Structure prediction request, 380 residues.
Amino acid sequence: MKVRTRFAPSPTGKMHVGNLRTALYEFLIAKHAGGDFVLRIEDTDRERYVEGAVDIIYNTLDQTGLKHDEGPDKDGGFGPYIQSERQASGLYLEYAKKLVESGDAYYCFCDKERLESLKTTVSDDGKEITVYDKHCLSLTPEEVQANLDAGKPYVIRINMPTEGTTTFVDDLYGEITVENKELDDMILIKSDGYPTYNFANVVDDHLQEITHVVRGNEYISSSPKYQRLYEAFGWEVPKYVHLPLITDEEHKKLSKRSGHSSYEELVEQGFLPEAIVNYIALLGWSPEDNREIFTLDELIENFDYLKINKSPSVFDINKLKWMNGEYIKAMDNEKFYEMALPYVKEVITKDLDLNMIMDMVKTRIELFPEIPEMIDFFTR
Prediction:
């Protein structure tokens, strides 16, 4: 089967470095194998939707060279590629009802008060979770129909087994087995009619013939639930590739407070898209010869996802600055002068030899915003 990967971001704001790395690895896996890279917009979480975020996704993929083969603007026969449009067709409810008919899912009519009563404190910090007790699984078909006819709000839950184990395979981590008693009856269709992230992903990945699912390793704990869904439908399971966490220099999860957690922030600070892509490719993967500078075409040729490291990757801003400086040095003069001009205008005077100064500046800066300070240094 032809390799098909998908980048399925939620339009909730700026493009996080972790999301961009996922997109890059999905792109490289597909292109290395001569396959397709699909863009799918997952906008079913309406509470987190941010106006203009879809444009950010398109702009980021365009600037970084991660050209998708299919997507909302390029129908390859597997559309729609926007989940809200797929939801409007009744697609997800249709598949959830198939699971209800087979006994692998059921309607749940429990109200907020009853669900609140099921909350349990599970840690010293007071965190609470709700473990559903399968209360509505015992409803007769007649009781379910009566509730539906009365317009009573409902969700549809998967019917997880309470005994035995579930095993799934990750191409990096190998076989992972969990006790079924640890799995909850997760919601498939929410009370507003929209599918949950987990359910929509499984349905869409199957229907769009996705062969490799690439995502952060924080989703490993959800993978047994994905596995149960594939088994319930009788569908072939795609290959899973869970990526290592990206941390800051203090080994904490990269967050917005770091100031360089998103692609947009890095560009605003003066980093080149090519350097950002090159550096992010190395956050979890490295070639056998420890080479560090790659064009996108060279990454496609050399990338082997089975060599991705399982350990967390540290986002070292100083290493990225060094790499950005290398890209500036290798830039042809015409392009360099064009990009440098806005910064030069701030400090240049008529009696300076611009060409001589710019030649010195080019080999010494790591970011374009450093140009005014560097020119000032050379002209004191």
Summary: The first strand starts at residue 4 and ends at 7. The longest helix spans residues 17-32. The mean pLDDT is 90.
